[in-house]
Design brief:
The protein is of the alpha/beta class and 619 residues long. The chain has 27 helices and 9 strands.
Length: 619
Amino acid sequence: MAASTALILAGIGVTSLLCQWAAWRVRMPAILFLLAGGIIAGPVVGFLRPDEVFGDLLFPMISLAVAIILFEGSLTLRYEEIKDHGKMVRNLIPVGTIVTCTVGTLAARWVLGVSWEVALLFGAISVVTGPTVIAPLLRAVRPTSKLANILRWEGIIIDPVGALLAVLVFEGIVSWGQGNVFGHSLYIFGKTLLVGFLIGAAAGYLNGLALRKHWLPQYLHNAGTLTFMLGVYAISNELAHESGLLTVTVMGIWMANMKQVPVESILEFKESLSVLLISALFIILAARVEFAAIADLGWGLIAVLACLMFVARPISIFLSAIGTSVSLREKLYLSWIAPRGIVAAAVSALFAFQLERLGYEGAEALVPLVFMLIITTVTLQSLTARPIADLLGVKEPPAHGFLILGANPIARLVAKSLGKHDVPVMLTDTNWENVRQARMENLPVYFGNPVSEHAATHMDLTGIGNLLILSPYKQMNSLATYHFVDWFGDDSVFGLTEGDQDQRARLQTAGKVQRTRGLFDGVSYAKLASLVSQGYSVKTTQLSDEFSYQQFLDQYQRQALVMFVIDSKEHIYPVRDMETLEPEDDWVLISLVPPQPQKERKERENGTGNQEAAGTPVN
């Protein structure tokens, strides 16, 4: 018996949720599970037949979903970030784009014998890697900070750049096909570019101005931006055929580079949308893939994939590395890592659909070719990235740094004290004033929700393997605990005791949260804030045979609060319970100490007090 449409739609939603959950559990890119789920639901068991279920709505639905994906990707393209991330990243974007597009085009044309139009489009689409596939891989492998930054920022920047290239190539193909002569084709292409850039820039400026001037209420920022973008996309297509994708890409880039436009909340809103809409989209796209189309590509498919992985990528890396400090081992590792992601899958399906409608020969080969590129690169590189990093010796040593939830005065004091001992730190807060102050104090900080997908992609956690919760926001504290316990492990998440006894009682049933509580001898955030307001400061103390831990306690009349200890091997540990703390004589203490009387300070400065190694308060 054929399944009802309602059951099929519900099945798509349930399947997308299961795929996202599986990806989260095994820490692999979700796109791999979504494509597998779609293939199983479609050609394998025949449960999902998108063309029959959606009919004439399938093409408009795919078009709107791709517009959302390109708009979100373009919102992350900030010009100053391109300039600030080293010569290697700046070289890799143009060089990698040109080399990959050229090799992909020639391989598809000469090996598979597809038309030049399809080959050009495949070459342009194969450029895109994307942060959605790079970020999970980096978290699992933990390469050195240099490699992690290169790969992460390449993925973030190449995402919209590659999509824009694919859109321009497609517009050129369609324009040429519509023109009877060269001049007319050039006119159509020029019109498409003009409409795309003008309307995109105008829409981006107008929407950014509306957000900056608060012409829209806060609760309409996300929904209003999304619906306005879709409206602009449709109008642009009416003015110039297929110019909408270029328009929304330009609109997103314009908004991303306007000052004081809160695009972070829009990017965060996209996460909920992606679970429902974009995840479902990839299941639908994968369900349309036919095994016969893959088989028709024959052994030439393997040759094309090999050209991209073993020719195009190494050439791109070695050319881009000229004049940089990237070593041979680092070049070899970068040459291997280039998984393709969401933008490649979505754009290829949409463009193939459109080329087929326009009657281009061989357009049906585009989707299986791109999907096999995605599946091969994501699977192969995810499974081999860690052993290859070990073999080349490019893995980061065990992460001992701290992600600090909160950028308030207490958190900033702690971050500066850890920084003095070369301990990597990253502050994160949703309070802009706290973030602004942290930046003024030259502390690394992420503004936004630390458990969001945007944070997973953009927050640099290189060298960081612990979470330190120094925030007064109870709900966010619990969410962060659950999130980072799965990332860092139970023994690497530390939180303050909640001041509310009822709240503590409720948390008794929440095992993961409760096990993280009790940092700094069980003090609460309110207690820490009170001590800092009384003039307590952070001080570093070197213990020795002449100045023991007991002498340290006596000097401050047991009012000092030891927060961290650094042992003889330079390993740092947060302190939970001072009663059981037994530091050795060569350890270092990082403590919150009370203000000393003026007379005692003078004695110490003259050398008449107890011997304590240069413990300088952090101002």
